[in-house]
Design brief:
- The chain is mainly alpha-helical and 257 residues long.
- The protein has three domains: 83 residues, no CATH class; 85 residues, no CATH class; 65 residues, no CATH class.
- Helix content is 51%, strand content 11%.
- The protein contains 15 helices and five strands.
- The strands form two sheets. Strands 3-4-5 form a three-stranded antiparallel beta sheet. A two-stranded antiparallel ribbon has the order 1-2.
- A hairpin with a 7-residue loop joins strand 3 and strand 4.
- Helix 3 packs across helix 10.
- The termini are far apart.
Length: 257
């Protein structure tokens, strides 16, 4: 049975739910729930590719559909693009020239950029393999600007920390609502006022450390406070002085260092 024939027979909620359950039970693709499995299955159907083939390009991270940086780069090269890296081993900055449609674009992403975004934390992938992480961000940011048809609104796992309005959130809800979210790509709420309160790099770092210790974010996935549920972000925003006092508590810091 061909891919097209197989997928053409899945035209109802029951069929999608069956595939979603199978993907979830397999433990593959970073899938942690039936709903996440359904969204992954929908993407397989849209691109008319089997799940194992899709795994070469996509991954589910904490319920969010992401596209691997190497997959973005491969698609870029297949579209005629070229990339010339200056120093693949540089752990402070990754720079490259992107050549596409007779235009050259100089691009870079540095550890300073990562620190300003609150990404660098001890023990995370940014600490273990900085050059690779820098390249991933350089690729995704540059292609988003010069070849958006390659990126198509998805993010690399290294960008999951950013609460972008186009990132898919997988809700714990009914199959029909999951399908609606997948089709409409409903944006995640943004909190510009809270962003302004945490504009200081030191507060950003302490906020991330605080929620890491609380078990609400995962440093191995390079998450930040922006990945917190909306109710927790709302509490931070409504009583920020109390939150700032909590993250600056000396006893808390000493206990968990």
């Amino acid at each position: 049975m061909s891919q097209l024939t197989a997928y053409s027979k899945i035209n109802d909620s029951e069929g999608l739910e069956l595939i979603g359950n199978a993907i979830c039970r397999s433990g593959m693709f970073g899938c942690e729930s039936k709903e996440a499995g359904i969204v992954f299955a929908l993407q397989c159907m849209v691109e008319n590719k089997p799940p194992l083939e899709m795994a070469k390009n996509y991954h589910l991270v904490k319920g969010k559909l992401t596209k691997r940086a190497d997959a973005m780069l491969a698609d870029f090269r297949r579209a005629g693009g070229k990339v010339f890296w200056s120093d693949l081993k540089n752990a402070e900055i990754q720079s490259a020239v992107f050549e596409f449609e007779n235009q050259n674009t100089n691009a870079s992403f540095s550890m300073e950029d990562a620190r300003k975004a609150g990404l660098v934390r001890k023990g995370s992938a940014w600490d273990k393999t900085p050059a690779a992480m820098l390249r991933a961000r350089c690729v995704s940011e540059t292609l988003r600007a010069i070849a958006p048809e390659i990126v198509q609104g998805v993010y690399v796992p290294e960008e999951i920390d950013v609460a972008d309005s186009t990132t898919i959130e997988i809700p714990k809800t009914t199959i029909n609502e999951v399908i609606e979210v997948a089709e409409n790509k409903n944006p995640k709420n943004e909190r510009p006022y809270l962003e302004s309160l945490i504009r200081d790099a030191d507060i950003e770092q302490k906020s991330n450390d605080y929620w890491t210790v609380k078990g609400k974010i995962d440093i191995d996935l390079d998450q930040t406070w922006r990945d917190l549920p909306d109710d927790l972000q709302q509490r931070m925003e409504m009583d920020f002085p109390s939150f700032q006092k909590a993250i600056g508590n000396i006893n808390w810091k000493d206990e968990h260092e």
